[in-house]
Specification:
11 strands, about 260 residues, alpha+beta
Length: about 260
């Protein structure tokens, strides 16, 4: 469960910066495409897993029991919707943080509570082609394309968040490419910015770092480029751009997003 101090820090940061994470990712582009249908909604908790199965179009090798693992995460968002996105807790009028589901993204929850036009979605995609889909949680303002707030894998017994150390949707964002590579784009400040590229491990539920680069500005106005996230191995701007292009040259993945409705 997320601690009170951790929750408060995230929410205060969103309000101070005007909730900028709610409208677009900081790369300034819509990166995940999909098709939404007004009939593609979860009618209630009990039907969540069967609804997921339908969305996959009867894909072979995907058992209902495996999809049931993800339904508990969907239920947590349904509970948030039914409880008006826990606005009193986020506003500091209540300290009952334990009511918020452990898998609910607080950046997304803040956006949902801040605008009636903001919606929460899920998508299922077998990224590593092992017969078990990964679950994506997205959010979007109005009819815009959802951005990723979380991704979950499964070891066939439980849902796993391989990016548990990240809180996506504000200063750190997650993107998926069509070749199964994930990009984590983060910023610690206006002068420290990094990109890490991952793939799903052979076990199907953890992730492996493939490549990382970062940028660090200095007090004298110069910019330094590094072949790691820590800023240990300096490289040229040309090398930095070449590494980025080797990953970003691949088209973005297209996910089928389904709005979560109680």
């Amino acid at each position: 469960m997320k601690s009170y101090k951790h929750c408060l820090f995230i929410i205060l940061g969103l309000f101070i910066l005007g909730g900028s994470g709610c409208t677009q990712n900081h790369m300034g582009e819509q990166v995940i495409e999909g098709n939404n249908n007004e009939n593609d909604t979860i009618p209630n908790k009990e039907k969540a897993s069967s609804h997921m199965s339908k969305d996959l179009g009867g894909s072979e090798g995907i058992a209902t029991a495996e999809l049931d693992i993800y339904s508990s995460i969907i239920d947590q968002y349904i509970d948030a919707i039914n409880h008006d996105f826990y606005k009193e807790i986020l506003a500091g009028e209540s300290n009952e943080w334990e009511l918020i589901g452990a898998d609910v993204n607080l950046n997304l929850l803040s956006c949902l509570g801040g605008s009636e036009q903001y919606k929460v979605y899920y998508a299922l995609e077998d990224v590593d082609k092992n017969g078990i889909p990964e679950l994506f949680i997205g959010g979007a303002d109005g009819d815009s394309i959802p951005i990723n707030y979380d991704m979950f894998t499964s070891d066939k017994t439980r849902a796993i968040n391989p990016y548990s150390g990240y809180e996506f949707g504000h200063r750190t964002n997650l993107y998926l490419y069509s070749n199964g590579i994930f990009e984590v784009d983060w910023t610690n400040s206006g002068i420290n910015h990094g990109m890490e590229f991952y793939k799903i491990s052979s076990n199907g539920y953890s992730i492996e770092l493939v490549e990382s680069v970062s940028i660090n500005g200095t007090a004298d106005g110069t910019t330094k480029y590094y072949h790691d996230a820590e800023g240990n191995t300096e490289i040229s701007e040309e090398e930095f751009e070449s590494i980025l292009q080797s990953f970003r040259g691949t088209r973005k993945a297209e996910l089928f997003w389904v709005e979560i409705i109680p």
